[in-house]
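User: two proteins, same treatment. go.

Assistant:
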Amino acid sequence: MMRRGRVEVICGSMFSGKTEELIRRMRRAEFARQRVEIFKPSLDTRYSEEDVVSHEGTTINSTPVDCPASILLLSSDTDVVGIDEAQFFDNSIVDVCNELANRGVRVIVAGLDLDYLGQPFGPMPALLAIADEVTKVHAICVRCGSLAYVSHRIVDGDKQVMLGEMKEYEPLCRECYKKEKGGRNL
């Protein structure tokens, strides 16, 4: 039987449950006795050098990689590939996901769709464009309780990539983010 590959993208702001949803889907695939591999960027060492860990503390074994091409090499006998924090990879992650899906692999990718400035983040727009299925999850705005739009950085720094948690970022809705930025349009 020919397997049908696909690309599923889970996106949203920080604290929205992206990694939790990725882990849930991977665990279901394991339960169904599918061969699974999960990867993350090696620079993401916030909770663990190797495991993918959600903000809720749920963990799953993973393989840290420096570049997307490594995912192709390390997933040759796999039914389902999970990729966490995809925004930290370069655009070659898009070709890797397409190649895996074309081989019949189910690819589940999680990542931030927007950076702290509310701008599309890294390869995420292209991943969203090639996805067979997109799930956008939302955090709750810490100021008003609406659905969050962006991960607002609350510490100094202008680098796009800055690993952090609740001490460095807070989820804000569009209106609260606009107020924070002095009413300027996003």
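Protein 2:
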Amino acid sequence: MTDPVTRSIEAYLGRLRSALGKLPADEADDIVREIRSHVRESVGREGMARTEGVAAVLERLGSPGELAAKFRAHSLARAAQRSGSPWLVLRSVVRWACLGARGAG
């Protein structure tokens, strides 16, 4: 049985993994591993109590949906760069613009 803090981290990561949607499985798994590691390292660095530290780090990351949208946009930008496809470049620019517009509001 896991403790409540570990469950909250894993619940966040589960929602993140779901929100990553159609990204290749290996890429999504890497993202989830990286975020898990980031949360653990950040809590240790800040010297906070574990419960408060995890809550603060997860809050700074934003909702799993918002974080996943950034990763999906980044993935699309990399694909556009590799392919040179004007359509992928346009989709990438539009996606980043939409993310920026949401953040500005």
